[in-house]
Design goal:
Blueprint: H1 22-39, H2 48-57, H3 69-78, H4 84-88, H5 103-118, H6 122-127, H7 130-142
Length: 144
């Protein structure tokens, strides 16, 4: 079992070298996923939680350490940063809880590490810049 109280890998400051450490990220994701799985209060918020619980109940067989990197990325990809889970969570750093949980910030950390290591896809670059996407589409539509 993973200790929920081990907050050594909690880091949301991109200026801290620990933030970019993939091993640290994996330990914190495991701790967070295990804690979320034990609580399950957020099942109704975004699709990241039902995906996590489906994986925990299925291929992971209840042990967060059995979650593959591919399945971990599926959960991370489902989080769209609405932060509803953070507001509702009883274990957050905002509440001063000793578990110091911040699911959306952790998911963003994972996305940032992946982007730094693997780059950002053309699709993501276009979608993060609506003005550019609009200009690209305007050119296509005007030719019809």
């Amino acid at each position: 079992m993973i200790s929920f109280e081990n907050v050594a890998d909690v880091c949301y400051d991109p200026n801290d070298p620990l933030y970019w450490d993939r091993d640290s990220l994996r330990r914190e994701v495991d701790r967070t996923f295990d804690l979320c799985n034990s609580c399950r209060m957020c099942f109704k918020y975004c699709t990241a939680f039902p995906r996590l619980f489906e994986i925990m109940d299925g291929p992971a067989d209840g042990d967060v350490r059995n979650i593959s990197e591919a399945d971990q990325k599926k959960v991370i990809g489902e989080c769209y940063q609405c932060k509803i889970c953070y507001v509702a969570c009883p274990y957050t750093d905002a509440d001063g809880h000793k578990y110091d949980l911040n699911f959306p910030a952790l998911m963003q950390r994972a996305v940032n590490i992946d982007a730094r290591e693997n780059g950002i896809s053309f699709r993501s670059k276009v979608l993060q810049n609506p003005d550019m996407a609009g200009k690209m589409n305007t050119g296509l539509i005007s030719r019809l």
